[in-house]
Write a structure and sequence with these properties.
There is one protein chain. By secondary structure, the protein is mainly α. It has one domain (7-259). The protein is 72% helix and 0% strand. The radius of gyration is 21 Å and the shape is globular.
């Protein structure tokens, strides 16, 4: 069995870190959005709300709408793995929750939805943050004030993850639970853009960031035994670590010291299509798992299933991006946000 062939730490790292992967993505998302806003408008208080909302709509809604149409059709056809339990909630309620970016709240109330619906919980949190992001930018007079305000989430989010819905296994999917991660991404973008930190301190901060990330992701038991998980600080520590690593990478790029490795180009390609991959990867997962079980695959072949899932999900995401998302994005931006770039600065978000 694959679990016996690998050290327990590495088995856990490869197959049981999806939750932390989403947390890391929240930080990256905040970093990309804030960087995009800074590059376009110069400073956050100068943000153009109409253009910002227009670009978010063009990026998010077309593919989300298409996904909901497909999922609704599969539900109505009674396709196995895609049918919503009508005793818990209705198809119409699920569609409304997805379009209203509160499917996470719906799952807290009624329990898990089918896999392709469940992945939308993180999108609900992310897009709710970006609904208020430009309004907060307009309210503050300086970016330092923005940092001071969003830093409050370092106190709010740990509590929201652990205590807001006690006894509910999905309670940590609430809207407040991961705003510290998105906020840290925004703060990292501002600090990277403004060069407020001494350059000599960046390598040390990057090293500290890697220590935080490795400690949380690889040494989960130690973090748990230290009591950090019970009070929600494991995710906060991971968010701060990821933000510091992003700042270090950005600093190296600005100095021309970030080498363009082939592996990084491959990851960059996946990053550009991360939205498409995330919204469609469960189709690949469901089909592959069914085929694997029908084939009678054993545990030692799980590597093939795992790598095949990554490759096919990346290819499907690329096909969806080229054939639908990017053309729709360009069309809507050209029509409703004429001064926006034809190619989004932060394509992955």
């Amino acid at each position: 069995m694959i679990g016996e062939a690998l050290p327990k730490m590495w088995y856990s790292f490869i197959f049981w870190n999806g939750y932390y992967g989403v947390c890391i993505f929240f930080v990256i998302s905040g970093f990309l959005i804030a960087t995009s806003a800074l590059n376009k408008w110069g400073s956050l208080p100068e943000i153009n709300t109409k253009a910002f909302y227009g670009m978010r709509f063009a990026r998010i809604i077309p593919l989300l709408s298409l996904l909901l149409i497909v999922l609704s059709f599969l539900h109505l056809q009674g396709a196995s793995g895609f049918v919503i339990n009508e005793e818990r909630t209705s198809l119409g309620r699920a569609v409304l929750a997805a379009l209203g970016f509160h499917i996470n709240w719906l799952e807290i109330k009624v329990g898990y939805l089918p896999g392709n619906w469940d992945v939308l919980w993180s999108l609900s949190i992310e897009e709710t943050f970006y609904l208020f992001f430009p309004l907060l930018c307009l309210l503050v007079k300086t970016e330092r004030q923005f940092i001071a305000i969003v830093a409050i989430f370092l106190l709010i989010s740990p509590y929201a993850r652990t205590s807001l819905y006690p006894g509910n296994e999905l309670g940590d999917k609430n809207h407040l639970a991961y705003l510290d991660a998105i906020a840290m991404g925004c703060v990292a973008a501002i600090l990277s853009k403004r060069d407020w930190l001494p350059h000599k301190a960046i390598p040390w901060l990057t090293a500290i960031g890697w220590i935080f990330v490795v400690a949380v992701v690889l040494f989960k038991r130690i973090v748990y035994q230290a009591g950090l998980s019970s009070i929600g600080l494991n995710v906060t520590l991971l968010a701060i670590g990821t933000a510091l690593v992003l700042m270090g990478m950005q600093h190296r790029m600005k100095e021309g010291r970030q080498k363009n490795y082939l592996a990084l180009r491959w990851l960059a390609a996946i990053g550009r299509n991360s939205y498409e991959i995330y919204l469609t990867h469960m189709f690949v997962v469901i089909l592959l798992v069914r085929w694997f079980k029908a084939w009678g695959g054993e545990g030692e072949w799980i590597w093939g299933l795992y790598l095949g899932g990554i490759l096919l999900s990346a290819l499907l995401g690329e096909a969806v991006a080229r054939g639908f998302s990017n053309p729709m994005n360009r069309y809507l931006r050209k029509r409703f946000v004429p001064n926006s770039p034809s190619t989004p600065v932060a394509q992955s978000t």
